[in-house]
Every structure is written in C-alpha cells, then in structure tokens.
C-alpha cells in the first residue's frame, strides 16, 4: 500500500512539473517566432517596431500635461443690419501708406512665409496599408463640364471700397440651396444659383459695423465663408488687428446668419485669441457640436513661428445669438509639439448627411516632401469633441498620430 502510494505521488509530481513547463516552452517558441517575423520584416524593408516607435505621440508625459484648454467668452456681440440694406461703405481706418487706384499691397505678409516642419523619419516610412500600394489616381481625358460658370469678385472691386487693390485674393466660396456666397480680401458678395448678384460688393467690416471697435473699423483679410447645412445658416469670418500685427490683442470677427438667407441679419461676435500668438491662415469647419478653427501661430513681436492653435466655438449659442458664446483653445506650440505642426485643417460637414451622433471632429495636416512627385503622407493629428457643460464648452483632445501614404502623385 505504501509502495503504491509512493508511485502515485511520483506520478502526480511529474504531471505537475509538466504543466509548469508547458507555458515556459510556449513562451520560448512564441519569442522565437516573433523574432523570426521581425527578421523577415527587416529583410523586406519593414521594421514594424521602429515604425510603431516613430508613430507614437511625440508628447513627453511632462509636456503633454501642459496641453490644457483655455476658454474665453466673446468680448463683443451685436445684431447686424440686413446685409441687403448695408450701405456701400468705405474702410473707416486706412493705413497711411495705402491709397490710390494703382496701389496694390500684400494683405498679410505672413502668408508668403514658407513654414516647413517635416520630420525626416516620416519621409522614409512605407505604407502600413498594403492595399494602397498600387493604386493610381483616377484620370479622365474628358473632364465633366461645370453646370454653371459666372464671374465673381475681382481685385478692382476693392477700389471703391478701400481706394486700392490687395493681393492675394484669399478667395473662399460656399454654396447653399439657393445662394452662392463669395469672400475675398476685402469684400464679400451674394449671388443666386444662376450667378446673378443679389448685393453689390460689400466691405467685410460693414458686416460687423454694429459691433464697433476693431472688427467694425479694420479689414485685415483671411476671410472664410461656410454654409452650415445642418442649421441652414451662413458663417462668415475674418481676423482683425492693429498696425502690422506686431502686438496683441488679435481678434477673430465671426458672423452667423439668423436664417438661411445670406442677405439678411447676422449675429456678430468679436473673439480675442489668447496670448501673443498671431492667428494666421485661419481654417474653419462646421460640425454638429461646434464651429472648429485652426490657425498658424506666430509669436509677437518677432513673427516667430510657434505651431498651431486649435479652437472650438460654441455653435449652439451662436446659432441663437447668445452673447455669452465662448471658445476653447489648445496651444500646440513648438514646446508641446517640437516637430512643428502647421497648416492644420479641421473636418467640415459638406455632405447631405450629418456625421453620426457623437462623431468627433478630426484635424489633419500634410507633411510634404522635397520631391515634387512624391506622395504626401496625411497626418491625422487630433480628434476633438466639444459639448456644452454648465454653459461653457468643454473639450477632449486626444493626440492620435497615424501616418499613411496617400496614393496620389503630383506631376
């Protein structure tokens, strides 16, 4: 009996040790397999470990914690006169150097500055999506004809408004169900869908005349017009500053129509952007939970490029003309993003269907190559969602760098 018990004990001990060794053996085989896969990837030119490391967010923990939202309420609000009744006003403030029909000047000299921030590593990354490798742009020898063409605003339209012309035009245009609205430096105009003008060329600042102050008295350009399809409203904006923009405050003047008629009344807002970051090259997007805005930042004085500012404006309040509308702002400067994020574009809802509920807005920017025929990687930088909480906007910005190659050759 004792001998049988001893053999039974030995048998159970051997089985127990075997069970302990199976996971170790399995882990060893897994590591060897992973090592072999990595070796094959390196032989094929694809080092996924290296690529994953390059694709990690560039924010060190200590720096990422400094990326905190700043919220500011509009410093001015007014209800405009109907656009169709605005007088053909001339600019109320004119620089001494301006004047004369033959005069032409660069409306914003910062626009001519080339800002490059490509990371050398990103240009060497192969595509993570093998299905995109052999795709080519769709080419057509017979491009479709436009359904309608008509002449829009010209540089000469600025002469009766400001006494001269400006360059570049910074043209923007958007289309609604019944109207086409065009903005240029430094005017806007409304047309019907047949190309017939509904109003004469109108100075941008006249839209903000009831606001008073800098939005009503200066025209500095970088205009943008968007049609908010979800609310049947028009969104028109330009920035404003004193002198050459060497010192704050810097203003963003925003107008939202009361209804779908772009020749009607607008809610006009004056927002002051934070700090000494000149908000250049503003880009805007309409989204269900906010009007999104990005700018290239130049620290003043000195015009030192300093990354991108990202904003979400309180769309819900602006649609009803609430004077307490605010924005939230994140400063993606060179300290937070030393690789130099620039010329970032928020997504804009243009289709017939709204984004699914809760879909966050996506910001993207391009990293170009020195080779004019190279493909351009699209950097999906940040997905943002804003919502109303206790009367102000709150926002969650989640850095999500994802690099891939777009199958588009530039010739």
What does this structure look like?
β13 and β14 form a beta hairpin. The chain has one domain. With 411 residues, the chain is α+β, with helices and mostly antiparallel strands. The strands form five sheets. Strands 1-16-15-14-13 form a five-stranded antiparallel sheet. It has seven helices and 21 strands.
Number of DSSP helices?
A: 7
Number of domains: 1
First CA to last CA: what distance?
A: 90 Å
Give, in spatial order, the strands making up the sheet with the most strands: 1-16-15-14-13
Which structural category do the helix and sheet elements fall into?
A: alpha+beta
Mean pLDDT, rounded to whole units? 75
Give the overall silhouette: globular
Question: Helix proportion of residues, in percent?
Answer: 10-25%
Give the number of DSSP strands. 21
List the helices and strands and how they pair.
Blueprint: H1 2-43, H2 48-54, H3 61-64, E1 70-73, E2 76-79, E3 104-106, H4 120-123, H5 159-162, E4 165-167, E5 172-175, E6 179-184, E7 187-192, E8 202-203, H6 213-217, E9 224-228, E10 233-240, E11 250-257, E12 266-273, E13 277-287, E14 290-299, E15 304-313, H7 315-319, E16 326-332, E17 345-346, E18 361-366, E19 377-389, E20 392-399, E21 403-405
Parallel strand pairs: 3-4
Antiparallel strand pairs: 1-16, 2-12, 5-6, 6-7, 7-8, 9-10, 10-11, 11-12, 13-14, 14-15, 15-16, 17-18, 18-19, 19-20, 19-21
């Amino acid at each position: 009996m004792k001998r049988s018990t001893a053999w039974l004990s030995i048998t159970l001990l051997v089985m127990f040790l075997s069970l302990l060794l199976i996971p170790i053996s399995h882990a060893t085989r897994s590591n060897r397999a992973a090592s072999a896969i990595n070796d094959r990837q390196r032989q094929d030119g694809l080092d996924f470990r290296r690529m994953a490391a390059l694709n990690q967010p560039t924010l060190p923990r200590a720096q990422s914690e400094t990326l905190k939202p700043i919220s500011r309420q509009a410093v001015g609000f007014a209800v405009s006169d109907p656009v169709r009744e605005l007088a053909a006003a001339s600019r109320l403030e004119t620089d001494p150097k301006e004047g004369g029909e033959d005069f032409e000047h660069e409306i914003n000299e910062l626009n001519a500055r080339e800002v490059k921030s490509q990371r050398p590593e990103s240009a060497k990354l192969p595509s993570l999506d093998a299905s995109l490798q052999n795709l080519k742009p769709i080419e057509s020898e017979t491009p479709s004809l436009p359904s309608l063409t008509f002449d829009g605003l010209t540089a000469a339209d600025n002469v009766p408004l400001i006494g001269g012309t400006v360059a570049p035009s910074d043209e923007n245009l958007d289309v609604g169900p019944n109207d086409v609205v065009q903005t240029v430096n430094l005017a806007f105009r409304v047309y019907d869908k047949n190309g017939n003008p509904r109003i004469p060329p109108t100075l941008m600042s006249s839209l903000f005349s009831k606001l008073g102050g800098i939005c009503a008295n200066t025209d500095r350009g970088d205009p943008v017009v968007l049609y908010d399809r979800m609310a049947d409203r028009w969104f028109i904006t330009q920035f404003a500053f004193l002198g050459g923009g060497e010192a704050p405050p810097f203003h963003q003047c925003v107008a939202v129509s009361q209804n779908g008629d772009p020749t009607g009344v607008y809610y006009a807002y004056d927002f002051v952007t934070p700090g000494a970051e000149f908000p250049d090259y503003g880009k805007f997007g309409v989204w269900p939970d906010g009007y999104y805005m990005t700018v290239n930042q130049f620290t003043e004085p000195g015009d030192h490029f300093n990354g991108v500012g990202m904003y979400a404006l309180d769309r819900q309040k602006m649609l009803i003309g609430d004077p307490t509308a605010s924005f939230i702002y994140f400063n993606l400067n060179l300290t937070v993003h030393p690789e130099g994020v620039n010329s970032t574009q928020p997504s804009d809802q243009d289709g017939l269907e709204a984004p699914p509920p809760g879909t966050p807005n996506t910001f993207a920017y391009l990293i170009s190559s020195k080779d004019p025929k190279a493909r351009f990687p699209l950097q999906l930088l940040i997905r943002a969602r804003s919502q109303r909480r206790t009367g102000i906007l709150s926002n969650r910005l989640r850095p999500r760098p994802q690099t891939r190659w777009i199958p588009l050759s530039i010739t």
